[in-house]
Design brief:
Hydantoin permease, disordered N terminus, disordered C terminus, single chain, mainly alpha, about 450 residues, 21 helices
Length: about 450
Amino acid sequence: MSQKNTNLLPWSVVFIISAAIFSGHFGVGDLIFPPILGRGAGASWFIAALGYGVINSLGVFIAYLAVSLHNKSLFGLSSMVLGKNFGVVFTTLSMLIIGPVFILPRVSSATHEMAVAQFFPTVPIWVTLLIFFALNFYFAYNRSKVIDRLGKYLAPILIIFMIILVIKGIINPLASPVSPGSPTAFTEGILNGYNTMNALGAALFGLWLINEFNMRGLKDKESRKNNLIIIGLVTAVGLFLTSTVLTYLGASSGAKFPDAPIGVLTVEIARGLLGYFGIIVFAVILSFANITTSVGLTSTAGDTFEQMTNGKLKYITTVALSSIIGFLIGLIGLSKVVGYTVPWLMLIYPALVVILIMSLFPKFERVKFATQVGIIVAIIFSIGDFLLGLGLGNNFFSRINLLLPLGKQGLAWLLPTIVAIFICLVISTFIKPNVLIEKN
């Protein structure tokens, strides 16, 4: 694609890519967490939605901003902080967790249990997963077409059915938000947004976008940076609007179903608003949200491992292996997949947050030592949540975490990490930055 007098892609292309990236982010968590948040927040639903957006949408934009500023993927950013070996380990672990080993089995098994089984209860899970990953491979195997396939064909269907549900819920809600609202709505929003961990996906999608820009003729760093910021912003706004209206549906229509558990609540809202057609709408939204997430992460895994191995592990090989691994692990069922997924996410996500936020500093070398210390502290205080998630709650790390602010909410790492970074930044004002770098 030739660029004339501008380094920005045409807006039609920007929206296609943004739709593809949005659909890659919007998964089952984005469909079930906001409604349950809204029901609990009641009249304070908008405050809760803001808290959710701070972590989910703003976190996504920060991740894309960090990638754009340094023109580096998650592998490049993590290597920049603690060296190439750390970058390989951290990126590999992150990509496996959010890709073929954890997320792909989760979204595929969720498609069977929450969508297909409602209409075809006698269909075995292996049939659903076989079709799911055959489609996953088809849409992901050709790297030059995957973004267009997502943005032009799959994402619009997801968005159209979301609009149908949302408009009906806004015009004719089933109930009114419960008053008074929750006094902790903003905090609850933050915690629910944290559960989606979309910023990790954004950090990985960054390489996906950089490679896409290269294929579209954007070879210089400034062009990629400008387009990445715009697409990241459009994606973040889309996620914020979606989560906000779903939070409202949970606060209004969701109030009619006070005892419905997470996941079931969204189904009940759709059924209440649209009758039997609502169940179909929910199934379509869920299925397309899951397949687009799966395709996006599969393609990203192909790019990531090809980059880290300097082309030795080919894109198509990773796509095929991801589909096979996702199929095999998905056979164990949704509840078991979720059970072993969450602890690993709790272990690595805090370190990622530190990397992304600290990489926004314009002169990163001056905060490199503070970033290194922050990562170490974040990981140490994440061990307790990791062990607790594995069912090993009676340990030193978990007991310490419960004594810290937000420890019961899985955020025990936050305050110690902030304090450690602040102390290191103060120290660095009295020591020349190059001395700190030489020591590390």
